[in-house]
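Input sequence (1513 aa), recorded before submission:
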Amino acid sequence: MAPGPNARHITRNLLKGPSGIASPTFTALFPYFGQLISREIMDIDEPSCPRELCGIDVSDDSTFTKNREKEEMIMMPVYRSNYDKKTGVYSANPRKQVNGATSWIDGSFIYGPSGLWSDALRKFQDGLLDLDDNGLPPLNKKGLPLDNFPPPSSHKLAKPTEMWAFGDKRAHENPAIMSLSILFMRYHNAVAKEMQAESSSLNDRELFVKARLKTTAVLQSIIMYEWLPLLLNKTADDLSYVRYEPSIAPQIDSIYAAVASKWVMTLMPSGIPVRQESGCGADQPIRLCESWFDGQRLIEEYEGDLARNILLGLAAMPAEREDQIIAEDLLDYSFGPLHFSRMDAAAEYIIRARDFGVKVGERFVADHQHYDNWIELFPYLNLPEETEQVLKDLYGEMSNMDTFILAILERDNSTQTYPGYTIKTTIERQLTRLRDADFFWFENKPNGLFEDDEIAEIKAIKMADVLAKALGEFVDVVDAFSIKDARCQIPLYNASNLPDCSGLKTFDYFAGNEFAFIASWIWIGLFPLVVIGLAYGAYTISENRRKQGHQVYRKELNASVSAIANMTNLTTAPSHDSGNVIYASEWVGEEEVKNVRVVLDNSKYVLYVQTVEGIPIRSANLAVYEILTVHVCPKSPFTVLIELPKSYDLVLRFSSHDHSQRFCAKLNTYVYENGKLLVRQPASWKAISRRAVTKSRRKENLNSFFRNVFAQAFNNSDMRSREPATNREIIEFEISKEEFADSLGMKANSRFVELMFNVADKQKRGFLRFREILELVIIMSKGSPDRKLELLFDMFDFSGNGKIARTEMSQVVRSLVDLAGPSKHNSDLEPIVNEMYDCAGLSDKDELNFDEFKRLLTSKDENFMLKVGVDWKGVKKTPAPKKTRSKILGTSHKQLKLESLPDSMNSVLHSKDSVRRGSNYSQRDIGSLATSASSLSVDDLESAFSDDAASVHSARIGFCDTPDQTLDRRNAKKPASLQLKHEAPPKFDPKTAKYKAFIHYIENRKREIAVLFFFYAVCTGLFVERFIYYYHSNEHNGARQTLSLGVAFARGAAEVISFTFSILLITMCYNMVRFMRETVLNLYIPFDKNIVFHKIVAWTALAFTAVHTVAYGFNYYFLASGPASHACFFKTTPYDSDAFIRVGPTLYTSLPGVTGVLLLLTLIVMYIFASQTARRYMHSTFWIVHKLFIFLYILMTVHGLLWLTQKPQFFTYFIGPCTLYIIDKVLSVTRRKMKLKIIEADILPSNVTRVLFKRPANFEYKSGMWVRIACDALGVHEYHPFTLTSSPHEDFLSLHVRGVGPWTLNLRSVMEASLRNEREMPNVYVDGPFGSGQQDWYNFEVSVLVGAGIGVTPYASILKDFVHMMRTKNRFKIKCQKVYFIWSTNNQRSFEWLIDILKQVEEVDINSTVSTNIFITQFFQGFDLRTSMLYVFEEHAKKLGGASLFTGLKATTNFGRPKFLEIFKTISEEHLRVKNIGVFSCGPPALTKGVEQACIKSSATTHSQFQHHYENF
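Predicted structure, token format:
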């Protein structure tokens, strides 16, 4: 668009002046009829879509700045016209504005631009238009797109259906143009009635067409032969019709559209006259500025025929004088939109002319006269001299002058009249062109529309005749356009004698949207919390129901147990009868209640609390209480509180008051018989619940107690800062044996606990006080080795005679071994004790004194007790004091010389034979050992023996090897044929460590990285392409101009969403993944990571969904902050002219809004229930909710059907993955139809259930694969994944299922019921097998298998497969030559079934190809006293029998967690020629994360690359 000065400054300085000066030539009807002509042939006022604002700064204009409290920029909104979107792209192809009208003088002002429009105006009776009895048009019930602007009186938009329907969509602009529309509609009906009277045979359609033809012809005649001659000061003969010219293009010239057609506005008066019904008088005039788009109301409220009186008044009143002055009603108070109700019409037309590209040099001048400078131009302008200078100052150069201003200022010097030559020539050329190019012009005889007489008749009809026929009698107009011949004149109204124009009004489109907008964002934020709350509530209800069912079961069990007890007189407590067994419920705090039975032991005066099955829960030694206080609640809940001051209280609930009374009576008798006193006090339940010291409250006191013990032991000042009263309470606080055992992390019935407790309880009160605990802590943390041994000696001296008998030593060994859990392998410990005595040279001793006891434990290491302490639960191991250590070590550098690495470390890291030695390589071929001392600092030693490194801890103490029998396998001499060149490992360079770690990570994850790079490259490309398209390329669409960056972000994110949600289906095609895993593509794509990739894609989709949602939040804000017309780019969603975009209706009633909301809700629900927590505790709910993906994809397909901004793209991405998914599911469903019978089931410890079922035909799989199973007893549609523990060569399939969730626990219950009742086993349905990274173990020369807990299941299959290959001598088929199996378990007894498999491996593994190491993590770490002694016994057991004391395996049993970094480092040193070592782990995330970090660090510091493959459960 051409630039120029501020349009408002131009109009204010050049076109403003005094109005009310009458024209000597034209009536006031003349300019309005000129406006009719413009509406007849063109519609160029429609703004472009998108709306292109060319605002005019009016900040300094008082007309628009009234009532403004602060200074701000005020822009008058002017929009560029609609144009052909194929033009305006580059300078050689300028914009071509689109004309919404037909360009012909064809009566479209009366009948509309189309047949549908005209049909909406018809009455469909006798060829008439639909006018009521008062001659007024019908309401716009058909929804014609009429212009709708707010009238100044109400500043509200009218409802389109309540507006009158006209052929001209802008007919409501003012009362004058509306009256002209009514006039010609009435004229049409008058003509139709005449024709019907002349020929009654014509039907409705024929009458309408003939009446329309004649009315249009009359309009053509009036325009060309009455209105135009008066404007040009010519006669009708001067403009006579010659012929039809088909070569003439009927286009609208830009200069006519933007300039010449607007000249009539200079003639429009400020007031619209209303002539009285009779006579020449006039009623109160209508102020033009106050009647914009208010004509309908004025006509309806007028008692007479206002349209008639307005037309007659306009024909009787002169127009404004022909000059450049424009009335203020148009210059300052023209109509505008809601947000800017007052406009400058002249300034708007200046901008419009610039938009059309109309320049001064393109004027239509017949004689080619040009104005080259201001001097040549000024004589043709009607301007005072001072105004000429203003004109020059505004434009500078004459070539910059707006053509609109030139045309308005120009005069015809030949006649000294207005308009000037430009206006006259332009209008004449335009109208004559349209006439001559119109084949249906009424004077064109070849078209056959009218005969000569009819043409003459039509040409004789003037505007006055139209008024007379349409308005009826008493019309005295002679010439409707010329004031000279007016019979009755009304004086021209001046603005001074008219009502003032109201000022500018604005409008906040967003007002009323605040609640819906804010509430929508709030519920979006709260909905996830609501879903989580509902999920938690549902889980709680489910658990409560389960607990209630369990309680019912317990009650039934209680009844049965009670009945059995009464019949058999059987009790579980020592020496008591059935009368001392009471069943009740124990309240342990809050709402937690559990069913128990209370046993009163007469022999020991001890109260036992047990489960209903007889499992001990706690005991209370009542002998320490002289007075036992009991509080009884006689009302529901019937409760008895037994105060136990030195422990936590016992709160029992009974089913009735009588039941509680019987208990109290029995307890009173029991106490009295033991010589004690029982005090019974009544109390309310509220008082009891407040008074009772529950276990949680007691625990808080214990925590404070032990915190102060360790603060005092290690010289912490916390205790000294407390109040004396608090210190006194702590010192006098006493703990029971059970609480002492809990502080050690052990069970109260442990023999070891009892021994240590008896030693510490010097006063034999049955409780320990602050000083006794403090003394024990100080001895074990700071005491000398002899002092610690003395404590042990006192513990193991059962008889107290200062001697430890051999039988007592056996009991010591038994008590310590039982700490790790009893095992079938350690039933006979006597040989181990004898071995210890022999090794220490005490075989002839039946009793040991202290020195001999010390010799027994320190025969191999005199410093055995140096760092031994006791680990307390929740407290780090107490370190030995520095002074003691320095004194013993005798070196300021704290260097400790060790003979060799601890044997347990050697056993972990060095098998008897290495893969490099060959199958026939034996120990006796090694030769002599080149021993060398290893130098380690104390800090290094502490690190090696830390809590995290129990795998490297060893009990060399007591090991009876001589130094020459100890082997260093890495330095052993070998035969020449097997001798290897040992290359020194590269030195660690800190500068390159991070780089090497990075390279390792890339090397180890290159397939994953490549896939993720490709995936995110596609996502980025899709997002960027759509973003650029909507931000730049799709300029004509308009979304970006209206919605700013929001639409670009929204559409970019939507494209990625379509892609990612489609890709999700591919990741779930298990059968396809399994098939592709066996192809060469598996070398480049990690198909076994499909679940991980599924999660990554899902999170990516969620992230872009969030972007899409937030972007549309901004989009809704921008849409709701402007008029509905700004949303014109929504081609499929038109808005009514009075419509406002409301957030609520748009969001919750439209198709995109409703589907978008449902999509968001569905995604939130699905993602919440797909979380790890939900899957664990509500797996069935997760599975059901995840089925919503079908509904999700339906919504996504429907979401874009309206084509709001573009053609829907989702189906393009979705069709391929959907097809693959359907095929994959068909294959899975086919397999699921096969019922597999469970052959065998075993109930194993730790909630593990072994299930064995028949292997289907053609079921081929590899070790390490997994399947998804469903059980008909638990629902045939609920599938869960489990790893196969059977081997591919076996004829059956087996699973080991650990009960950690509802489904697995229910499966265990079903199996228990079937086994107990000897019922038939249920059937299972199998889907699979599916591949995983674990099955690639055989592709590495050296593989490390790490399993934790139930995570060993894939390795059970792998090891059995490996055993089978060794037995059948098929190992040549695989690459793997060495396997390290590291098993980390809480308790080895939980997986006795795996130990049986490991035994089979050891039986056939004569070359030590598999190195197995077991880590029991539930036990104590490092140099804890119990752990150190267990290592002593373990070493002797292995020396004696060659098998572990705990597992019966040759593999080493370690206590604590494995230190993978050290293990991997030694493995790398053991296999110097192996570059890539495969590490496979399965277990909890903490384990796999630790293995991953160790792999990265080891790859950075060794020559090997550790490639990690893991699975989590």
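Checked by second reader. Residues 1245 and 1391 are 7 Å apart (CA to CA).
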